[in-house]
Every structure is written in structure tokens, then in C-alpha cells.
Amino acid sequence: MTRKEITHFLQTHKKEMARRFGIQSIGLFGSYARDEAREDSDIDIVVMLNSEHLADDYFGVLHYLEDHLQHKIDLGLESNLRPEIRNRIKEEIIYV
User: Fold this and answer.
1) What is the pLDDT of residue 83?
2) How far apart are CA 66 and CA 72, in angstroms?
3) pLDDT tens digits for 21-56?
4) Which CATH number do you get for residue 66?
């Protein structure tokens, strides 16, 4: 997969994921966002969820992405980014 393919997928499925899982925003970061991914790289995605069923929706999004992209996903909640890495990650996130 390429950065372009992943961001295209996220863009075209964003409305469905918003409806099903309460996604407010979604973006790609990490090695795929930097075009440095290797064959064994996971896909790093960050989301902001607006949900009272946060755990269910988090795992729903995770499984949805892994099923559709057929790749290991490292899914992070924007609100839970560790302070020591938050700024670096926010600089490289490609929001769709």
C-alpha cells in the first residue's frame, strides 16, 4: 500500500465510519505518512471519536480498517496521544 492509496481509502470511507463509529476526524501518520514504510510496517492512524460507547467504537473502527485495508493497523485516539510525542505526531498527521 502507498500513502496515496491509504488516504484515498480513508477519504472515501470517512462518512461511513462517521455514521457507524462516531468519527469526527481521521488521519494517517507514521512511516506511511512520511513515505518511509517497509513491507512489515503497520499503518498508523489517529482518530477523534465523538461517542458515548468509546471502547465499542474504537474496536469497531480498528476492525473495519484492518478488514478493508488487509493490513495491521496501529490506531490511536487523538485525545490519548502521549504528551512527549504529541507535537511530533501532530506535525506529520495527514488528515482527510
Assistant:
1) 84
2) 6
3) 999 999 999 999 999 999 999 999 999 998 777 889
4) 3.30.460.10
Domain containing 12 equals 3-95
pLDDT of residue 86: 84
- Strands 23-29, 73-77: pairing is unpaired
From the candidates 40, 44, 57, 74, which is the catalytic residue? 44
pTM: 0.91
Are 65 and 28 in contact, with CB atoms under 8 Å apart? no
Catalytic choice (35, 42, 56, 67): 42
- Count structural domains, the chain: 1
Q: Is 28 exposed, middle or buried (0-12, 13-18, 19+ CB in 10 A)?
A: buried
42 counts as catalytic: yes
Q: Is 40 a catalytic residue?
A: no
* pLDDT surpassing 80 at residue 59: yes
